[in-house]
Amino acid sequence: MNQSACLKNYSEDSDSSAFHQAKIPPTVTPETLLELAATHGTPLFVIDHQELRKNYATFQKYLPRVQAYYAIKANPDPAIVQTLFNAGASFDVSSIAEFQLVHALLQDLSPEEQQDWIWNKVIYAHPIKATETLTTLNQYKPLVTFDNREEIDKIKKYAPDAGLVLRLRVSNAGAMVELSSKFGADPAEAVALIMEAEQQGLTVEGLSFHVGSQTTNFENYVQAIDLAALIFKQVRAQGYSKMNLLDIGGGFPAPYDASVQPFSELAKRINAELERLIPKDVQIIAEPGRFLVATAAIAVSKIIGKAIRHGKLCYYINDGVYHTFSGIIFDHCQYHLEAFKDGPSEICTVFGPTCDGLDVITMTDELPSNLECDDLLYSRNIGAYSGATSTYFNGFPPATVVHVNR
Ligand SMILES: Cc1ncc(COP(=O)(O)O)c(C=O)c1O
Questions:
Q1: Mean pLDDT by 10 residues, the chain (406 residues)
Q2: What is the value of pTM for the model shown?
Q3: Consecutive H or E run containing 402
Q4: Atom of ligand 1 nearest to the CA of 385
């Protein structure tokens, strides 16, 4: 049976649980994916800009007091940065290359306007910065995060015009990606660090934290806001009145599966805590990455081989963990593969195209057993931390990127 014939069933049988059709962004139908694959070949990485705009609008709707700074590391595709820029986003950058992606969008502005824009809408959110990075950034008087004394000395020497934001270590319990062992000041040292920076003639403008990426444990946000509120109080009680910014970081979970509670529920908890504890004169920002981009991309790959190994059906496809599926390794994320064709299904192993035994996409997905070479598969919700770490390992090129609904 050819794929479009199967697709007809697919469309007619929209409730079929085998295909999860309702979860595909309505703007990118399976028909669209097949057409794009026919035009551009595979592997393909389809970015839906309508979904990006929708996610940004959702974020701002449910967290009206919070300005979203898109964390570019989640997906640095320049077209994504452009779409979120057009939608009104600010940006979290964590390298000079990411900073330049934003800077490139400001070319029509005068140098003074560029500086003003960067000052108002960019945070350099990596607490550890190379000295040459600080030197490059200093002319823009950026906001930069820090979490230790050594970094204060570096900032004083190489970026004395920067505004500082102290990153706190907070609980990352239950997050898919843990960050608290690598970054964040011990809360007990927070006031001393702020005073140390002040003594060196620097200005600490606020506090930040990151509760861990894909945090489904909403209590992390509640505890972190409570902690930040306490430190605001302590610092103000010491007569330091220059702190007027709270950065609640990233971590907002993408709806990878039904176990993830709706964003509106998380927003309710955050809003209540901000309302209760954070003074009105404090500006609130956040650094969402995954939440904005995860659902905005779909990967389409092609079956290039089929074998039975140890009694189990194995498919080999032309994309893998060295490419679009790199998030399996680096992001601890599991993406599900789905077929365009119908048929009796069984639990399969799906391998990527390289010679490396590590190149395994899934050992547990249920797929039709009647798929053949050249049939296509797709994987939804693959926009975050996926192609961002793609390589040319073994000579296999990364997927072609196609933009829809731009
Ligand atoms: C400093 C910082 N901000 C924001 C993010 C984005 O996090 P998420 O994609 O979980 O929203 C990260 C991710 O590692 C980060 O390290």
A1: 42 32 64 97 97 98 98 97 98 98 96 94 98 96 96 98 98 92 96 97 98 96 98 95 97 95 97 97 98 97 98 98 95 95 97 97 97 98 85 93 96
A2: 0.93
A3: strand 400-404
A4: 9
pLDDT at 4: 47
Ligand 1 centre distance from Cα of residue 198 (Å) = 27
Atom of ligand 1 nearest to the CA of 167: 1
> Among 6, 348, 355, 373, which one carries the catalytic annotation?
355
Which of 30, 42, 5, 62 lies closest to 373, judged by CA? 42
| Domain 3-48+295-404, classified CATH 2.40.37.10, yes or no | yes
User: Which of the listed residues 287, 293, 381, 382 should we mutate to test ligand 1's pocket, taking the one with most ligand atoms within 8 A of CB?
Assistant: 287
Give the DSSP H/E element, type plus range, for residue 59: helix 49-62
Fold match, 3-48+295-404 / 49-293: no
Question: What CATH number matches the domain at 49-293, 3.30.413.10, 3.20.20.10, 3.40.50.300, 2.30.29.30?
Answer: 3.20.20.10
pLDDT at residue number 23: 47
Confidence (pLDDT) at 390? 78
The Å distance, Cα 95 to ligand 1 centre, comes to 13
Does 250 sit in the ligand 1 pocket, CB within 6 Å? yes
Rounded CA separation 368/341 (Å): 7
Give yes or no: 355 in active site. yes
Contact 227, 220 (CB under 8 A): no
Domain ranges for the chain: 3-48+295-404, 49-293
Q: Would you say 262 and 80 are in contact if contact means Cβ atoms under 8 Å apart?
A: no
